[in-house]
Amino acid sequence: MSEPAARVVIPIVAAGDSAEMISLYVSEAKIQMRSVRGWFATWRWVLVWFTQLLFYGLPWLEWNGRPALLLDLAARRFYIFGMVLHPQDVIYLTGLLVLSAYGLFLFTTVAGRLWCGFACPQTVYTEIYMWVERRFEGDRQARIKLDAAPWSMAKLARRGGKQVAWLAIGIWTGFTFVAYFTPARTLAAELLAFSVGPWEGFWVLFYGLATYGNAGYLREQVCKYMCPYARFQSAMFDRDTLIISYDAARGEPRGSRPRRVDPVTIGKGDCIDCTLCVQVCPTGIDIRKGLQYECIGCAACIDACDAVMDKMSYPRGLIRYATQNGIEKKWSRREMWRHVARPRVLVYSAILLLIGSAFVASLALRAPFKADVVRDRGTLARMVEDGRIENVYRVQLMNATEQAQRIHIEVEGLPGASLDHWQDVEIGPTEARWVPLAVQIPPRAARELGAGAHPLQFRIALVAMPAAKGGDDAAAGSAERREKSTFLVPR
Predict the structure, then answer these.
(1) Based on the number of CB atoms within 10 Å of its own CB, is 439 exposed (0-12), middle (13-18) or buried (19 or more)?
(2) Where are the domains positioned within the chain?
(3) Chain-wide mean pLDDT for the chain?
(4) Which of 8, 13, 236, 314 gets the most CB atoms within 10 Å of its CB?
(5) Number of Cβ atoms within 10 Å of the Cβ of 112
């Protein structure tokens, strides 16, 4: 729904004494969308329920004594069911974004703005808010009459009840969003005790009011003016993309007529010009004028038109999913689908399959710990007792699981090299720790190697945890890493 926009008028003085007034902003009428039932409307509500059950339910789902999905920014840990991600795992976020982008490209190339029409949060919450509005104010005609009616207690009660319900949904949505970063039960207890932190309180209100404003008032303005996808979608369309199309050859010339009248006998097309396709459109466009960038592909006009065709005893499909080539060349549905599998679609599909397979394989083969070896910059190569040469290193160990692990380190690739006073290290669940270690070589090996930098390798492996500590012997040797470094022999 859109409120009338402010009108700014600038006088333009033309030649002579005449002047022309040019408006910079065009005032738009408020869109009162009519409710619709049908196959596509049912699927839209299925996705509303599916996405919102996931969104509202996941923060309350427990896994290993913690939320199943927790983005703990303070601890720099992301918990996703049984997986723990560290900042070094940002590559998985990159892979997820690339998968999402190519998935969007593929679906748009095949069937237009499916994401916008059925699963986009703006569409989902607009559907929810419109449902609330209809419960309080009625369907389209009732809302139009209510807008025109003077203020009364009945009107105030309806409008006030709607606003309260909208705000409640918005605040609960904001709370759920923050619950992905702060455990939901902890956040709820803080809110009830009025002890919530400033940042958590800010984001609950910010996200809640953004939902309230976008879904309650801005609605189609977000899709038409704020969302960039509407502007670049045409780059992914071609004449074989399935889009919502009006069959002008069948529908024109349009005009009203009694039911069950054969349009051929009165010289008209199948369109009875009822304008229901316009009334149910959430962006207020007339699909009979052709594809427009404002169309979000929700298919509400298809459901409305099919219902009218049923009442008139005409075939369905006056407005339908079709391709431009299919409409012009009068292809059957099978012929149109045969042209959907074109080179662009096959390329997107192959890239998506390749990246998706690599993403899944990388997650499946992900090591249960991470290690990184760096030289200790504060300590130079030095001679210690018995003439041994010592280099000091620092090893960063990160436990990528929620079970304690014991790490064993060996040095390889350097004759006579050994670790000085090394004992296996135990790191706790999801813990990250820097561990110092010293590598020494005997004097004879140092003389044989000569002064300079010499390569060596650290073998870092898991070992069995003692049974008394609840370890699993089967974990011994289940993973290891090899890290390269250098050993300096002074002159």
Answers:
(1) buried
(2) 32-366, 369-489
(3) 88
(4) 314
(5) 23
pLDDT at 394 over 80: yes
Instruction: State residue 313's pLDDT score.
Output: 93
Q: If 0-12 CB within 10 Å is exposed, 13-18 middle and 19+ buried, where does residue 301 land?
A: buried
Distance CA 389, CA 9 (A): 84
**Helix or strand run (H / E) with residue 134:** helix 121-137
Reported residue count of the chain is: 491
92: helix, strand or coil: helix
Answer whether 108's CB lies under 8 Å from 340's CB. no
CA separation for the pair 161, 169 (Å, rounded): 12
Give tens-digit pLDDT for 229-241: 877 877 888 899 9
Listing DSSP states for 410-427 in one string gives EEESSTT-EETT---EEE
Task: Provide the 8-state DSSP code for 14.
Answer: -
Could you give the CA distance from residue 441 to residue 346 in angstroms, rounded to a whole number? 59
Domain 369-489 has CATH 3.30.1380.20: no
> What span, in angstroms and rounded, lies between the C-alpha atoms of 216 and 214?
6
- 182 contacts 70 by C-beta, under 8 angstroms: no
pLDDT of 8 over the 50 cut: no
Q: Which two tokens stand for residue 414?
A: 């350097």
Neighbours of 77 (CB within 10 A): 16
Rounded to two decimals, what is the model's pTM?
A: 0.83
Residue 350 has pLDDT above 80, yes or no: yes
- Give the containing element (helix H, strand E) for 356: helix 343-364
User: How far out from the chain centre does Cα 107 lie?
Assistant: 15
Residue 446: how many other CB atoms lie within 10 Å? 22
Label residue 187 by pLDDT band (50, 70, 90): very high
| Residue appearing with tokens 């160990």 | 397
Say if CB 165 and CB 136 are below 8 A apart: yes
Rg, C-alpha atoms of the chain: 33
Cβ atoms of 183 and 64 closer than 8 Å: no
- 355-383 pLDDT, tens digit each: 999 999 998 888 888 899 998 888 888 88
